[in-house]
Amino acid sequence: MDIRSATAALGYAATKPATAPTVGTGTEKTGAFAKAAGSFAETLQNADETAQQALIGKADSQALVQALAQTELAVEAAVTVRDKVVEAYQEILRMPV
Q1: I need a labelling partner for 78 at 20 to 30 A (CA). Which of 31, 36, 54, 89 fits?
Q2: Residue 12 lies in a domain
């Protein structure tokens, strides 16, 4: 068996298009995940903008506290989901083959 880095690289390059995601062919679950990720990013961006506005005196402290509380909840939710995914992956690894 001939294993060379050039042969391996060519094989990898040949299979890469088959595994590349295509735009617009996602399932509903993928769309829901994309919406959740977008909402998470929007929450973080909103908190950042509010904090910047509070630093220059254009936002009140109540708005800053609300934005930071929303960000904290979003991060806690993301960490919980991540922990569940890692736990499920570990359960799969423990399965006998």
Answers
A1: 54
A2: no
pLDDT values of the chain reduced to their tens digit, one per residue, 97 residues: 456 666 766 676 677 665 555 666 555 667 888 888 889 999 999 999 999 999 998 888 899 999 999 999 999 999 999 999 999 999 999 998 7
User: Residues 76, 43: contact at Cβ < 8 Å?
Assistant: no
35 with 21: CB under 8 angstroms?
no
Burial readout 55-94 (b: 16 or more C-beta within 10 A, e: otherwise): eeeebeeeebeebeeebeebeeeeeeeeeeeeeeeeeeee
State the Cα–Cα distance between residues 77 and 43, nearest whole angstrom: 12
pTM as predicted: 0.61
